[in-house]
Amino acid sequence: MHLRWKIMIVLCVAAVLVDVHSATAQTKKRIIDLLSPESPAKHKDEIDLEIVEIKIAGRPIALGQSFDADDNWLKDMTLRVKNVGTKPIAFFDIGGALFERMDEELAWDQSFRYLFAWNWGRDSTRKKKRLKGPALKPGESVELTYANADSFQLSTIAQGKGEGAFCKLEFTAWAIEYIDGTEPDVPRMRFPKPH
Any long-range contacts for 35-40 (C-beta under 8 Å, 24+ apart)? Predict the structure, then answer.
């Protein structure tokens, strides 16, 4: 009887270890990078926005360096974005292309199939010349989370592979609209430097 209890305990511990191992099996190497190098600004005041920090599940992430994360990595991502320009911003979005493999690249004639974007402020498609509502003033920062993710792109991802299938996010484009309704010809953004 005593031996039977020992065997049952060993089997239970083994089952728990198998469950723990299978739960972590969904953790994969991921990477966040820029699609193309940042275009240099000639003057400091040409920069409109700066991504001050990227975190996943509270952990700081460096651009271009791989990290381990589970299937919820996009849900767990937060960006801290600062207005480093000279004008209040009414609306901006920051977007990136998603890839299934860390080494995956697109040929010059291919289009992105899956995109992920965060939006803040009023949508620039509204027909009003002057936008009313909150403005991100020079020097102020906001935190973007999954709640700011573009719902259309989320539904496209959900109908396709699902968020956990992607291992790479490359920032590709962004848009900015100032509180006076104007937009910069070429929005410029600064990203955190690799550690």
Answer: 35/96, 35/97, 35/170, 35/171, 35/172, 38/188, 38/189, 38/190, 38/191, 39/186, 39/188
